Amino acid sequence: MAETTDRSSDSIATRVILVLLIVVSLFTLFSIAVLVLISHNVYASSYYSLSTLFDANSEGASAFITSALAAGPSYIFYGFIAISLVDGLAKAAIIGFLIAGFINLLSSIDLKSKFETITVKHLKNHVIVAGYSMLAERLASDLKRNRINFVVIEKSQEKVNLLKDMGLNVIEGDFTDKKVLNDASIGKAKTIVFTTESDFVNLLGIVTAHHIMPELKIISRARSESSIRKMQRGGAALCLVPEVVAGIELGERIAKL
Amino acid sequence: MFVAKGIGLEGHVIVCGYGVVGQKVVDVLLEHNMHFIVIEQDPKKVEHLRELGYGVVEGDATYSKVLKSAGIENAKAIAVVLDDDAKNLFTVLAAHDLNKRLFIAARANDEFVREKLVEIGADYIVMPQRTASKEIVDEITKTKA
Which residues of chain A make contact with B13, given a CB cutoff of 8 A? Predict the structure, then answer.
């Protein structure tokens, strides 16, 4: 996302610069042509046209025009127009360059993502949802409904962009990495929930999180019941297999018939 | 207690699919001493179930013929807990056609599948992710207090 916005503002800036450059050089050529017509002196015409462009030696230029005007008074009007046009355009070009540079600068800062990291850094007593699986999707909406602050850590950039569009706090990265967990302010978190479909990855996350912050409450999804004991030994407080929970629920309902 | 064939059974429960959810359903039914019969496609699982002495029908639960051989006309309830939402839909549809009084419990992964299942005659629906999510939120809010 951030990349595409950068690219589009970049292309706007370059387009502005290009158009201005073309217009300015066309009018400089026009000015040279007019002055050559007046004075029949190619060198002096080019010199004064270009120096007007950089706003230098304008007295010399007007003196040159006055002297040139003596040669052919019928061109007086065109001469003045050419010089003032080049002068004005040069100034417009300079302003254009400045604006384009400013746009570039703004887009390179990428205020939005800065703002997002700041909000995550200021989270307190929040829940970290590690991995965005089907369970996490459900969990995210439940947490939102209960007004519990949470941040999602997700590896895949595609999902991260999707979540950002949904307005959720997201951190892109691997949650088995200590640095990523610190980015999610694990030190101030209340709970961390591992939701991936892989027991191994979840276990790795549990061990890492438990090592950083032993008092943190760890909840994890498990795929097989045999993993639960390992996860609990690794420091998880609650492990559940959604399918097992659902199976028991369904069985109990039928048993009530 | 366990009959190998569904025909002749009455008031029993049919469990379609012996996956993680199906296994738990069977466990609960055993606990409550209820008669049941499992429909399963995987020959290995079927053999395992036969070794355990459970009633099994080997085949695809989406076919009416298979459901009939599990004695659906005389069954009390059916638990449709296959992995695939589409297959669950088909099975519920077939089951509802064969026995209108049947209590149909089904598993759904997607919210919109849940609505569809209710429309075509399912009486009770479980969503593993939803149930688990609720438990997790309960656990989180518990520590808050």
Answer: 254
